[in-house]
Amino acid sequence: MPARPMFTRRRVLATGAAAAASAAVLAPHPATAATGSTHSPGARPTIVLVHGGYADSSCWNAVIQQLQSKGYDTIAGSNPLRGIPTDAPYIASLLDSISGPVVLVAHSMGGTVITNAAAGKSNVKALVYIAAFVPDVGESQADLIAKFPGSEVQAVSVPVPYTKPDGTTGTDLYLSKDGQAAFAADLSPSAFRLLQATQRPFDADSFTYTTQAAAWRTIPSWGLVAGRDRTIPPATERWMYQRAKCRKVVDVPTSSHVAMISHPKATAQLIEDAARAIR
Hints:
The chain has helices spanning about 60-70, 85-95, 110-115, 140-145, 180-185, 190-200, 235-245, 260, 265-275; strands at about 45-50, 75, 100-110, 125-130, 155-165, 170-175, 200-205, 220-225, 250. The chain is an alpha/beta fold. A six-stranded parallel β-sheet has the order 2-1-3-4-8-9, with helices on both faces. The relative contact order is 0.20.
């Protein structure tokens, strides 16, 4: 196992986490969330999608279109990207607003968030990890990103200082204009430019927080391996999914880290497989 990388305020190992969300993407029937509507037995679950860093909610758009065409209610939750102590309770509150079963989906570092947020949530019936972190209790993303070689995203992550509410200085990480090969190699140049321009950064400290709960130990899980991922190495994804005893693992050999953008059909199909399995 490689030596654990050193994290400083100026240079932190940034792992894409690409995924999405600044504003929540609404389902065709938004009454399923935050309104107390009910689901009849056997009803289709609500699909909740959680992004990671370097993107906004629009990274789920093509997947959402696929799922909505099949009649699934969908919500793309807005992940604060400040680290487990902030992100997990925030997503947990969204889960609490939904009546009926939930399939909880995450990309990249969103996987760490749902692993913590879903713990103890009886309405979450399945977890789906899309090129995502699947940490165990006591592990950090820094631990996992170093488990196997192959991550190239650190060199294309740009640290930007910001002032926190308490007056201290934090560091946000942005994906640079040179980050396509490491993060989204199978997107067109124009699609990458749009993603990079609209990205949301994540706090560098996100990589140092340790996981407090491992929901995958009690909730059935599914996983997608991005075969050409240079953000989270494919070997790391496979190892985490095997440890979590995922019911199904789909390997997309040509996919970069952003499988939900470049391979939305395969992503949506895995999500639907999970949804069908819990009905």
